[in-house]
Amino acid sequence: MRFVRFVLVIWLVLIPTVIFAQDGTTVSAQAYRTVNVRQGPGTQYPIIDQLQSGDVVPVTGRSDTENNWLRIDISGVEGWVAYFTVTLTGNLDALEIVTVERRSDGPIQGVGGGGGAVTQSAFINPNSYAGAPFVTAFRRVNVRLGPGTEFTRIGFMNPRNVADLTGRTEDNEWLQINFEGQNGWVAYFVVSISGNLNQVPVVFVPRTISTPAPTLTPTRAPLVITIETLFNTNLRSDPSFEAVILGTIPYGERVQAEARTADNNWVRVTYDGQTGWLITSLVRILQPRFYYQSFDQLPVSG
To answer: Per the confidence metrics, is the pTM higher than 0.70?
Structure first.
């Protein structure tokens, strides 16, 4: 009898757990690496905690129909994680879509060139915006000080943010907007335009003209011709058989040719500290290995 009562108690305890586990609204997320938990659905919100690899937490909501961000319960605290950072169990479509007021509380540190502070524009619903003409960002858009990527970035617009259109470049490639009370510039292709762009004034922004780097005229490297003696060859003081013999260059010696006579019959070399002339019929060219080798590129002397 006691055994029957014991089994009945266990059954009553377990059955709610089984029913809860089969409930289609129960969704859990498991981190497969270290995951930042943020105060809201976006990287502009501060990090309030982290999940470690293997941690499992309940999912209590989602940011939109694309499920880009998931609201979780981490030790009784509400937080948000990016969808792609976790693996999921359960039916996300059964969870409510949670609307969170976008942050617009000043500069965000560490974003933009040089690690300085930049500003994000406040969220404004384009459907209720009364200004015209204006631009709407359809993705995160850099706002720059001037019309070009060479200008400093001063902030960014989030997707679906709007801003008054106050100017444009002559080619319409860049648009000037009222960005948090100052002039900023965005590229034409990253926003959509409401209103007549042709009625927006053309704004000329002086560009910093940099001095172009000087064009370097390539200088041909001096030609080096190496020759080898085919016999024991007399080194003469001048390109003539009547000239004084300064010495003899042994067979197989390699020397650098320095100059030639106009008829290419003689070549000037320096050997063993003495500069003189060799008859070209007693030497051969080793380098460079042209298809047709000659002394023609040497300067004429003698």
So the answer is: no
Distance CA 224, CA 276 (A): 17
Provide the residue-wise pLDDT of the chain in tens; the chain has 302 residues.
554 454 444 444 444 443 333 444 689 999 887 888 888 888 777 778 888 888 999 999 999 888 888 999 987 888 999 887 888 898 888 899 998 876 544 333 323 333 344 455 554 544 555 556 888 887 778 899 999 888 888 888 877 788 889 999 998 889 999 988 889 999 988 888 888 888 899 998 886 545 555 665 554 445 678 899 988 899 999 999 999 999 999 998 999 999 999 988 999 999 999 999 999 989 988 876 654 467 887 889 87
Nearest Cα neighbor of 200 from 130, 132, 146, 121 is 132
Sheet (strand 86-89) strand order: 47-51, 35-38, 77-82, 69-74, 56-62, 27-31, 86-89
Query: In sequence order, which ranges of 35-182 are alpha helices (DSSP H)?
Result: none
Domains of the chain (ranges; CATH) run 2-94 (2.30.30.40), 113-199 (2.30.30.40), 225-287 (2.30.30.40)
Name the helix (H) or strand (E) containing 267.
Answer: strand 266-271
Residue at token pair 């981490």: 74
